[in-house]
Amino acid sequence: MTWTHKNLLGLEGLSREEITFILDTAERFHEVLDRPIPLVPALRGKTILNMFYEASTRTATSFAMAAKRLSADVVGFSKAASSVSKGETLLDTVRTIESMRVDGVVIRHSCPGAARFIAQRIDAFVVNAGDGAHEHPTQGLLDLFAVRKRLGSFEDRHLVIVGDITHSRVAHSAIYGFSTLGAEITVCGPATLIPPHFKKAFPDVETETDFDKALVDADMIMMLRLQLERQGKGLFPSIREYRKLYCLTAERMKKAKPDVVAMHPGPINRGIEIEPAVADGPNSVVLAQVRAGVAVRMAVLYILAGGELEH
Q1: 139 among annotated binding-site residues
Q2: Cα torsion at 131, 137, 142, 148 (round to 10°)?
Q3: Where does the chain bind L-aspartate (predicted)?
């Protein structure tokens, strides 16, 4: 198929064929990563700007590595070391940099809609690397990629997403991506961490507050990072109680299917969201998710830059 979107701002609205096209393209780049010299000339002469207005280790590194694996030039940008710290607006910053002939912009920002705001105002393509609690589309794609590698398909599979649903852009992209490919979804967590409008926004997604009940039929369990920096006061009694009710422990895994897939987008608060024995155990695809991230981001940058692969 031929890709028709200028940007990747979210998984909402993408078709099954479009998501599958990205995953299939990522499969080809995943093989590239196994080569002695994991480098292809696909984006030689292109310049990718990575703009991270929020702290990031794995996503920023993964995007930079993906662009370099495609032979693109990569320009890094951080809020603290830029003119933003002197009061320059987001749009002025991007326009200034675009005038230097940037081909693509990868942006993470704390404000939902920041990526769309930029995409509507510049000629370069834009990839949303996380905008507030809205979406994190490449995380959703790499989660799909890692699970497809393990389970093969999503039809009649059941995904349980556990934790801080309210503040999670990861959860929102996962819901759009996994449901589009045929999975059933349950979100689980304290009622105070599931937004009041959730049922109206996602009528086909089940909600559950009892983790032990939710995990019994799960084929995939996605543990979310507890975003303490975004919490208001009083959303749950204590970390100790949260851990007791919602941590994926080795003991709790005994109640799940033997081949259940355990995921976490990272960074992990070990012992709070997931025990080390589970995060590093045979059901975990946590490291596979990280590896998939480079291949998926290579695919996204390649497709948006105008690459075409025959299927």
Answers
A1: yes
A2: 150
A3: 86, 169, 225
